[in-house]
Backbone:
């Protein structure tokens, strides 16, 4: 071996050792970074559990632990699904809504159709209404409501039953058609209640959305729209009412919890700038049922204490801290701590993992 070849071989070994050392160093750095992130998350969890009082909870977006638990369908809905499955040659997927105990998702596998007397030559609305008249008990429709759904005419106020009003009919790029219905009760919208029936050239393939069963509410409010607007806008100076609508509000529907149907005003308030909120006011008692931020952004904190749900919401996104020590320090208001740490948790996932919700 020549002196030149020995020199090149020695240089190559030195380069390989250096490269190996650099790879080990990079691996060590990555492990340190990952360990630091784990420590940060664990420390945040420790601070959260040690600082927050029992019974308080923070909501970032609307995710709640209660939603993870599998709900059980009420007997009428379960029997309707069993009837449908027994007549079907394909597998049917389904999901039960925790807030209502009826199905909010029923779908045949693949592009197969659910068994029903479907007139393929009918309009999409006619086909959707025919399916619900046969199988509406899946989503919580009573016998009276199933008999009414076959017609697009709204029933008179003397009938204590909900009706479905077409909101939109659309066909997607693969040829599937979707008929969206809004639930109505005595001419009033039921907030958050929308049913979508899906179909193709073979038949109805699925249904999803929320239908609120057994709505029962007095249509005549005790409060005027102006009085409800005053209740909604009194939280701060410079707030004005932009829109008011009398509707049916089902408590717990947005949170995935059981509730009751209430006649309520939907009041949209604004400061004329960036702030836009929808405030729900009980049309009989004048109490606030919910407050929803209408500005689209990822961070939307709501703090509840001593338990989850209205009327225990004590802090909303954008509300100022209460006076006192800095959040996270000795003697700080636990509500301030909840609000601050919920935001820091959001920022951790946004900056560390690119998650904005």
Residues:
């Amino acid at each position: 071996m020549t002196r030149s070849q020995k020199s090149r071989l020695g240089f190559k070994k030195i380069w390989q050792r250096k490269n190996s050392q650099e790879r080990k160093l990079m691996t060590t750095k990555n492990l340190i970074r990952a360990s630091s992130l784990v420590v940060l998350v664990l420390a945040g969890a420790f601070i959260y559990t040690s600082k927050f009082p029992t019974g308080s909870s923070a909501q970032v977006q609307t995710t709640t632990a209660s939603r993870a638990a599998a709900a059980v369908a009420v007997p009428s809905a379960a029997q309707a699904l069993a009837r449908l499955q027994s007549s079907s040659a394909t597998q049917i997927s389904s999901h039960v809504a925790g807030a209502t105990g009826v199905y909010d998702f029923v779908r045949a596998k693949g592009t197969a159709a659910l068994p029903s007397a479907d007139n393929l030559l009918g309009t999409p609305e006619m086909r959707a209404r025919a399916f619900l008249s046969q199988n509406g008990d899946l989503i919580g429709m009573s016998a009276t409501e199933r008999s009414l759904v076959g017609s697009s005419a709204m029933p008179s106020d003397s009938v204590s039953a909900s009706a479905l009003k077409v909101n939109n009919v659309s066909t997607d790029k693969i040829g599937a058609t979707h008929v969206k219905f809004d639930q109505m009760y005595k001419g009033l919208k039921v907030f958050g209640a929308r049913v979508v029936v899906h179909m193709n050239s073979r038949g109805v393939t699925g249904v999803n959305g929320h239908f609120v069963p057994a709505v029962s509410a007095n249509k005549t409010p005790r409060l005027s729209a102006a009085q409800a607007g005053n209740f909604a806008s009194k939280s701060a100076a410079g707030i004005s009412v932009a829109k008011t609508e009398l509707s049916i509000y089902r408590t717990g529907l947005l949170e995935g919890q059981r509730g009751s149907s209430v006649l309520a005003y939907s009041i949209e308030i604004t400061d004329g700038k960036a702030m836009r909120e929808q405030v729900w006011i009980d049309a009989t008692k004048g109490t606030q049922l919910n407050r929803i931020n209408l500005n689209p952004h990822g961070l939307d904190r709501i703090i509840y204490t001593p338990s989850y749900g209205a009327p225990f919401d004590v802090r909303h996104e954008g509300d100022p801290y209460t006076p006192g020590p800095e959040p996270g320090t000795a003697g700080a208001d636990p509500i301030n701590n909840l609000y601050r740490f919920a935001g820091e948790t959001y920022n951790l996932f946004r900056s560390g993992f690119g998650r904005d919700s």
In short: The chain is about 30% helix and 25% strand. The helical segments are 3-51, 75-86, 124-135, 143-148, 225-233, 334-353.
